Amino acid sequence: MAILDRIVGIILPVFIIIALGYAYARVRGQKVKSDMSAVNAVSMEVLCPLLVFTALASKDFDVVHNAWLILAGVAISVGSGLLAWPVARLFGYDVRSFVPPMMYNNCGNMGLPLAVLAFGPSGLSAAVALFMACNLVYFSAGIKIIESGRGKHTPFWKFLVSPMMLAMMAGMFFALLRIRLPEPLFVSLKMLGDACIPIMLFALGVRMTDVSFRSWHIGLAGAIVCPVAGLAVALALDQVLPLTDMQRGQMYLFASLPPAVFCFMIAELYKQEPEKVAAIVLLGNLAAVVFVPLGLWMGLAR
Question: What does the alpha-carbon distance between residue 285 and residue 223 come to, in Å, rounded to a whole number?
Answer without folding.
Answer: 7
